[in-house]
């Protein structure tokens, strides 16, 4: 089995498979570095989604 890494939202830290419950983390990621960038990746994806659908911010 290949290594999987997670980003724990509770501790704001990278974890291996053995860690906090999945409800508290993002992933899995294929590398420790990708898991460390989880918040940045999520922000970039959210921004791209907002750009694609400007109606999101309209009330």
Describe, in plain words, how this protein is organized in 3D.
This protein is α+β, with helices and mostly antiparallel strands. Strands 2-1-3 form a 3-stranded antiparallel beta sheet. β1 and β2 form a beta hairpin. The radius of gyration is 14 Å and the shape is elongated.
Relevant terms:
59 residues, alpha+beta, 2 helices
How do the helices and strands line up, and which of them pair or pack?
Blueprint: E1 5-8, E2 13-16, E3 25-29, H1 32-36, H2 38-52
Region (Disordered): 40-59
Organism: Streptosporangium sandarakinum
Biased composition (Basic and acidic residues): 42-59
Helical run tally:
2
Please identify the structural class as seen in this structure.
alpha+beta
Query: What's the structural domain tally?
Result: 1
What is Rg? 14 Å
Mean pLDDT: 90
Apparent shape: elongated
> Which regions contain 5 or more consecutive residues with pLDDT less than 50?
none
Largest sheet: 3 strands, antiparallel
**Termini, distance in Å?**
47 Å
Give the proportion of residues in helices. Answer: 25-40%
Q: What oligomeric state do these chains adopt?
A: single chain
Strand order of the largest sheet: 2-1-3
Would you list the SSEs in sequence order as H and E? EEEHH
Strand content: 15-25%
Beta strands, count? 3
């Amino acid at each position: 089995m290949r290594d999987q890494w997670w980003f724990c939202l509770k501790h704001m830290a990278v974890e291996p498979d053995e860690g906090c419950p999945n409800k508290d983390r993002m992933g899995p990621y294929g590398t420790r570095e990708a898991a460390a960038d989880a918040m940045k990746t999520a922000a970039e994806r959210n921004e791209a989604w907002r750009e694609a659908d400007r109606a999101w911010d309209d009330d």
